[in-house]
Amino acid sequence: MPARTRQAEAVPVAGLAKLSEKRRQQLPACTVAQLRQRIAAGEYLVVIDGLVCKLNGFVNKHPGGPLALLHMVGHDATDEVLSMHPREVLATMVPRWAVAQFVPDGSGRVSFVEDMALPYSAPRTAGGEDPVLDYGAIQRDYWQLHAQLQAEGFFKCTYSDYTWDAVRYVVLLAASLGLVVWGGGQTWVYVLAGLCTALLWQQLSFLVHDLGHNELTGRRGVDLILGICVADLLGGLSVGWWKKNHNTHHVVTNDVDNDPDIQHMPFFAISTRFFESRFSTYYRRVMHFDAAARLFVSLQDKLYYVIMCFARFNLYVQSWLYLLTSDFAPYRMLEVFCIAGFFVWFGYLLTYIPTWPQRLLYVLIANTASAVLHVQLTLSHFAMSTESPDPERECFCARQVRTTMDVICPRWFDWFHGGLQFQIEHHLFPRLPRHKLVRVQPLVKDLCRRHGMQFKEFSFIDGNVYTVQWLGEVARRAKVYNCREHLHEQAVNSIAKAAGGL
After folding, report:
1. For 213-222, which contacts have Cβ atoms below 8 Å and span 24 or more sequence positions?
2. Within 10 Å of residue 493's Cβ, how many Cβ atoms?
3. What is the rounded CA–CA span in Å between residue 318 and residue 335?
């Protein structure tokens, strides 16, 4: 039986930090027990490439948001850090925060705080089948594949890949504006304009995704400002909110308590764990499984597409809540200005539509038809595992494969999914330009095959069926839960009445 172990030597194994051997040897040693003790005392300590890094002075300056770092506290986060950052950045940043050499205990653990009550990160949800994987071997092969892709230039953007994307953006923008401005009062023209606008926003979302991951120029500031120009000014949505949410999602994918991308109470519960009214570390509140949640969840498979039609309206709200209330909003004023600009130009565009019913129809179609994007995004995770078979030892690569699925589509239809139908590959290599994910898929499949990891992929139709069926299964269990709660309440009331009559 393969042992769940990883390399146990207290030496750099991913080669991230440019730290001389002399400097490394000057650092004090830190055992697991000492690491836990210091974290309990309030230090934000993360193990990266054999070094213990103290991030208290950096956590609120982290470009990807504080939570993305806080969820790594008490973990060997070498893989997560490697996947999300360029090596040249890490080579200088990791040594800056290093305070000790980490001394592993030989247990093969990557998490050392699963039994600790941390106020900013909940323990990973445990459960599910145990596939008995060799996590150490998986991790080493993941590093090897990452190094191979790096050496072959996969992480460099090929701007010609965006040629046809740019053509689509221009055509859809021109069609959206032209049909509205010269619609001639014909209702069917405004319906078509709404569909073109929805498709434009869907396609631009893929570009914003690239910019949010610094895939275009590789320069964080430049990509982020370009993302604000596209997402905020052309779409009315905050790219800052998206980055904070999305980076957290990448670190704690499909974890019930920590991943905001699956926390949609009271409308959806993709796990019966949500029946327990869990506390969200992202939203900092209890996700109550109250009467409203019980009703919606018991019908979620039937309401899935209906609710998706209103998802974009929720994003407008979330964007403003982020910009007006979040402690972390690096480009707050620029984003407020750009989103305000969106509503100005979009509102002016509506003046070309002669009647209010037609204006309302255009706005509804443009926003509700965007539901296709939200369906595409949720397919990759909603029906996937939310419980780790071994939270202390499961490595990053195994976790991403377990919690994510790919969508199969013909090559000529790649544009519709933006290349992000290769979600497993994207989660393993978030900085990889999406146009290149198709070339990486065979390599990832081979890695999964060699290590006995299940690689899940469905066609878009089958993925929808699979997801709705899973939502239906959770809905069925919610109905059983509701029935039991009702019977329990009746029993309690009967006992209380009987006691009152004595």
Report:
1. 213/430, 213/431, 214/86, 214/431, 215/157, 215/431, 215/432, 215/433, 215/434, 216/157, 217/157, 218/86, 218/156, 218/157, 220/63
2. 10
3. 13
What is the per-residue pLDDT across 454-488, written as a single tens digit (0 to 9) for each?
999 999 999 999 999 999 999 999 999 888 776 66
Interatomic CA distance for residues 338 and 137, integer angstroms? 47
pTM: 0.91
Measure CA of the first residue to CA of the last residue in the chain; give whole Å. 64
**pLDDT at 15 exceeding the cut of 60:** no
Burial class (CB in 10 A: 0-12, 13-18, 19+), 247: buried
Query: What are the two backbone dihedrals, phi and then psi, of residue 456, each rounded to the nearest 5 degrees?
Result: -100, 135
Residue 11 confidence (pLDDT) above 50: no
Instruction: Tell me which DSSP letter residue 133 carries.
Output: -
Cβ atoms of 217 and 157 closer than 8 Å: yes
Cis-peptide, bond into residue 266, ω within 30° of zero: yes
pLDDT digits (tens, 9 = 90+) for 395-425: 999 999 999 999 999 989 999 999 999 999 9
**Do residues 142 and 446 make contact, with C-beta atoms less than 8 angstroms apart?**
no
The dihedral over CA atoms of 414, 418, 419, 423, expressed in degrees to the nearest 10, equals -130
What is the reported pLDDT for 6? 41
**Distance between CA atoms of residues 334 and 229, nearest Å:** 9
Q: At residue 499, does pLDDT exceed 80?
A: no
Phi, psi (rounded to 5 degrees) for 64: -85, 5
Q: Strand pairing partners for 51?
A: 48, 101
How many angstroms separate the CA atoms of 406 and 425, rounded? 8
What pairing do the DSSP bridges indicate for beta strands 98-103 and 51-54?
Answer: antiparallel
List, in order, residues 6 or more apart from 144 with CB less than 8 Å away: none
Q: What is the mean pLDDT of the chain?
A: 91
Tell whether the torsion through CA atoms of 170, 172, 173 and 175 is positive or negative: positive
pLDDT at 24 over 50: yes
pLDDT at 22 over 70: no
Using the structure block, give the residue that is written with the tokens 């003790």: 37
3-state secondary structure of 305: helix
User: SS3 of 246, please?
Assistant: helix
DSSP summary character for residue 231: I
Residues 217-234: what's their mean pLDDT? Answer: 93
Tokens at 315, concatenated: 């994003």
For 261-284, letters b (16+ CB in 10 Å) and e give bbbbbbbbbbbbbbbeebebbbee
Cα torsion 201, 204, 209, 212: sign: negative
- Which among 162, 313, 348 is positioned nearest to 235, based on CA atoms? 313
